[in-house]
């Protein structure tokens, strides 16, 4: 019979390292968090081969004495819990496991000097064994170097990825922590290359724009709202400024970067009727909540959290995002696509005017002096048929506009291109409007205002209720969401321990397969903690109705009709994007126009 025994300390640390130190980025996250908790105002990170060879973190924090350094390398020793109130923890770290865990699986060099101390101290641990210590020369603060991670544990080393992949993971860790603390100056070097250098105190919006995308500042809306003891700040990208993956959603709780399904589900719910299902918003959200209302001691890596009032937090985020987006919902991702701008070309220089332009030049000799008599050359035949083809645009003389009405945001209609795009002149540039996409959004908002959502979600009872067999966990999830689903027209109830009874379906999707619908909704509940799928299906029905009832591309519009469309867009919520998240209009500033003609 196997004997129960107490494991040796070095083996305990290696087991703990398996939980905390999965790869170089895991170790880097713990070290940067320690630097932030130490009150650092400047942090420098250096990587070699993505952290596989070495990674180093230097800060100007409070520093440690030699005795504190020795204690910091013992398990469950920390300065971040002055008492036993773990639910009140406000620092990024608190377990006291990171340093001994990292030191047990790598060559670990710790150097530190408190402010006011005459000199620093150095302690070197090689895979759990102290191999050197003594005085060290360094400015006040702490420097930690991790080398040869998992070097003596080949079973773990072989599971590490390529230097390129490990570097990408390390960069993401530093990026998220830098975003959470715009007051701290942070630099990241990889080998001999400076990746980024951020100054402290530059403000949240500037820090986020620097790290995510510079255009986010112009194509996003700022958030700053409170509800009770909760506060939500950050920047949310317009629905038209979206990506194909959700990797550009940065979520923070009390300054801690997290990946939480409740928060991601809330984001998806807030953008539900503004983005296609396969597109994802770009944003950075910072939620501040009392420490006792959130449990951060859920995962060893501290990337997951649990809320005391999960639905209250979700509702706050959804309503906060929608309220913020409503302030910019008539805007579009206005910057013209760089690729489209690059395709603008100067007209090629021609030696002679085209025949169609001959009347402009009649009566004068525009040719260069010729030194000799020559036979008349053949007329220029460039891409004449293409250049002089029938234009695809149309303009009419517009009625004069009164002075007080000349400040329309979307300008005054001047013409139509390809019977699809409206060309309007605003005070600060040219506006191009996709007439079908714009009118589609306007029709959708009219349908909603007229109560079409309720009509689409109206319940239609099944002649014979259908029994759908599922596992018990799935039935529990669906039963918990039954009340919300009933509001959307789907009436379900428990039918034994492992089955659900479907009594009615929403009128708009009455022909759908109940079993497939319930399984999809259950998957949605498991992934996001909220049944968003059914609402999205009903939104799709409304969007289809709006599409069929809108002005089609190719329809000729009068100038007064174009202006009426522009004025309604200015009054209608979310008119800056169509029902699929694409922009309904773009603006070409006068500066851009002048650049096209070389006037800048």
Briefly say what this structure is:
By secondary structure, this protein is an alpha+beta fold.
**Percentage of residues in DSSP E strands:** 15-25%
Shape: globular
Strand numbers in spatial order across the main sheet: 5-4-3-6-2-1-7-8
Measured distance between first and last alpha carbons: 86 Å
Structural class: alpha+beta
How much is the average pLDDT? 82
Radius of gyration: 32 Å
Question: Helicity level, as a percent range?
Answer: 25-40%
Short key terms for the protein model shown above:
600 residues; alpha+beta; eight-stranded mixed sheet; five-stranded mixed sheet; 20 helices; 25 strands; 23% strand
How would you sum up this structure, described in words?
With 600 residues, this protein is of the alpha+beta class. Helices cover 33% and strands 23% of the residues. It is built from 20 helices and 25 strands. The protein has an 8-stranded mixed sheet with strand order 5-4-3-6-2-1-7-8, covered by helices on one side. Helix 2 packs parallel to helix 6, helix 6 runs antiparallel to helix 7 (204-211) and helix 13 crosses helix 19 (559-571). The radius of gyration is 32 Å and the shape is globular. Residues 377-389 have low confidence and may be disordered.
List the helices and strands and how they pair.
Elements (H helix, E strand, L loop, with lengths): L8 H12 L3 H14 L4 E7 L5 E6 L6 H7 L25 H6 L3 E7 L6 E7 L2 E8 L4 E7 L6 H4 L5 H18 L4 E6 L2 E6 L5 H8 L8 E8 L2 E8 L4 E2 L5 E5 L2 E3 L2 H10 L9 E2 L1 E6 L5 E2 L10 E2 L2 H18 L10 H5 L15 H4 L22 H4 L5 E2 L17 E6 L3 E6 L2 E6 H15 L2 H5 L2 E11 L2 H9 L1 H6 L3 E4 L4 E8 L7 H15 L4 H16 L10 H13 L13 E5 H7 L4
Parallel strand pairs: 1-7, 12-15
Antiparallel strand pairs: 1-2, 2-6, 3-4, 3-6, 4-5, 7-8, 9-10, 10-15, 11-14, 12-13, 16-17, 18-19, 19-20, 20-21, 21-25, 22-24, 23-24
Helix pairs in contact: 2-6, 6-7, 8-9, 13-18, 13-19, 15-17
